[in-house]
């Protein structure tokens, strides 16, 4: 491409809130055949909030121990639990010990109690029976809510439902990509049922959903699509997404996301509006036409 057409294209992009880190990415974007979207914070607002807390057994006052266990976690779900505790005027202590279990949840020691918060898998691996919660859990998951379980001293105590709203433009943005012949996929660490419910809401087909993907395996999913012969754009906002953004043919970071994601990506979508993806493709095509 001529330096002039690149300059003009980059300028147009910047006006729309699409920042290309270099001319090669503006050129490369037109070749994209598949777009892999992170769920939380990319398709959704990434501002989860607690909608229901169900006490499975014991006193509901013990929710204070759960909030304390989450106090040192930086996960958005932990922030949602903390916000809820504040709303409910719960007195939240500091945990004595705290450990994050990547992709699954947390374990902490609070006032002499062992507290586990996270996926059913995390609790089951610790030998906790989660059967009593299964029906409720599935009900929340079918509504597209992330459901987290909490156990105290190895006993299942709470089911916490957490909702995150889909961004108003996500559905239209995904449809636009599909209309111009680009395949759209979703990837998340969240539960399969929750992921599929959100996918349905935005028009991504079930077979294009990769759920329960551990942080260290996100890049592998990009590689898998590339190995199938596709040019892949990965779009994400989190620290977890950085390796996938780096390995993708075009990595696109959500501007409102983490610095780590922005650094790993080739393009920044400043406002986080997914309609900027198809606009970037159009801009890239136009730029390439101008040079030929
Ligand atoms: P993602 O960021 O894609 O949603 P993660 O790998 O961060 O996925 O987390 C996967 C799942 O692990 C979450 O959906 C949740 O069920 C559980 N989890 C992770 N961290 C926490 C936490 N601090 N509190 C409760 N649950 C958690
Ligand atoms: Mg995310």
UniProtKB/TrEMBL annotation:
Record's subcellular location = Cell membrane; Endomembrane system
Top-level taxonomic group:
Bacteria
Protein family according to the UniProt entry: Belongs to the cation transport ATPase (P-type) (TC 3.A.3) family. Type IB subfamily.
Name assigned to this protein: Copper-exporting P-type ATPase
Give the species.
Piscibacillus salipiscarius
């Amino acid at each position: 491409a001529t330096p002039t057409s690149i300059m003009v294209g980059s300028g147009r992009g910047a006006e729309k809130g699409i920042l290309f880190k270099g001319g090669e990415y503006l050129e490369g974007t037109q070749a994209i055949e598949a777009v892999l979207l992170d769920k939380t914070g990319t398709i959704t607002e990434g501002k989860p909030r607690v909608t229901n807390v169900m006490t499975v057994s014991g006193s509901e006052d013990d929710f204070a121990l759960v909030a304390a266990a989450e106090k040192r976690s930086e996960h958005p779900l932990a922030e949602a639990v903390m916000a809820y505790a504040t709303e409910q005027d719960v007195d939240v202590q500091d945990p004595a010990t705290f450990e994050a279990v990547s992709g699954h949840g947390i374990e902490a020691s609070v006032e002499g109690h062992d507290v586990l918060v996270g996926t059913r898998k995390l609790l089951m691996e610790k030998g906790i029976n989660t059967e009593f919660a299964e029906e409720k859990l599935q009900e929340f998951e079918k509504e597209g809510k992330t459901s987290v379980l909490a156990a105290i001293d190895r006993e299942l105590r709470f089911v916490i439902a957490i909702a995150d709203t889909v961004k108003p433009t996500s559905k239209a943005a995904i449809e636009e990509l599909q209309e111009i012949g680009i395949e759209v996929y979703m990837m998340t660490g969240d539960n399969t049922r929750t992921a599929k419910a959100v996918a349905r809401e935005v028009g991504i087909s079930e077979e294009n959903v990769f759920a329960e993907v551990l942080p260290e395996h996100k890049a592998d999913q990009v590689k898998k699509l590339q190995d199938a012969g596709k040019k892949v754009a990965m779009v994400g906002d989190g620290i977890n997404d950085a390796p996938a953004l780096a390995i993708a043919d075009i990595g696109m970071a959500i501007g409102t996301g983490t610095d780590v994601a922005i650094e790993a990506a080739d393009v920044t979508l400043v406002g986080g509006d997914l309609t900027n993806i198809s606009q970037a493709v159009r801009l890239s095509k136009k730029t390439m036409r101008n040079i030929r």
